[in-house]
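help with this.
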Amino acid sequence: MHQITPPVPGKYMDLLLDFSFKKIFASEPNKDLLIALLNEVFCGRKHIADLVYNKNEHQGDIKTEGGAIFDLLCTGNDGERFIIEVQRAKQEYFKQRVLFYTSRLISGQAPKGKRAQWKYNLSEVYLIALLENFTLDGSPAGSYLHNVGLCNRDTGEIFYDSLGFIYIELINFVKTEEQLETDLDRWLYILKNMSKMDKIPVYLRKPIFEKLFNVAEYGNLTKEEKMMYDSSMKYKWDNENVLDYAVKEAKKAGLQEGLQRGLQDGLQKGLQEKAITIAQAMKKEGFTADQIAKFTQLPIEEIERL
């Protein structure tokens, strides 16, 4: 395996861990950080002045319908909805999953009555996905920012501009400190590298980045938060080591790429069982159902049944 001992927390948190991402970007006092990040991601196409956080679990219209659990869901000042997802490893049917997520938000806008008066006046829906260690099939080589929408296949003309998917493949963002030109560059560089830093660099001396470094400092966490972050970091480390070892052994055995993917998918399914085990341990330690749900991404109803 590529590591022998578990990692030790640095001065700053790994922003792509589930716990730290939600603590920093999904809390009311830090709302300005998420707004600043989203405005850079949209590259001037939209300007978000304010956000309201929504519940991250969206149920179907009837009990038998599957619901959707988002990493982060919020509503902009013009009524537009934003789903923000962080995906660490490649997942089968990822494109289909995000289509399902956005369709849930679109269909959920239909009123229960007076449909004729509503006239399908839909609010905008956007999904922003931060992909850490993989690229989507069919992505242009070396490109890291992908803005996807509905358009005419023949002319490229936009067909409908109120539904969009923005994929950021961080593995392809390889700019060095000297190559950072825009604030989007700086945000993506921080997302990838903050946990390796021991101080805020001079080129990031802006109020918004200074606040980000302050709230992401490991030493500023409470004892309870440190425990959750440490568990989240070890959880990531365990999964990476198990997966790396399994793929390495698969290659030794001469397995083809399809079988390797099957092995990875099987290991991914095992993460659900591990999340339940962690939730049980956290419940014994006295964590609330909301805290456990934020960390494990399990539905609150499932946590309460444990």
About this structure: The chain has a mean pLDDT of 83. Residues 12-220 form one domain. The chain has two domains: 12-220, 221-306. The longest strand covers residues 158-169.
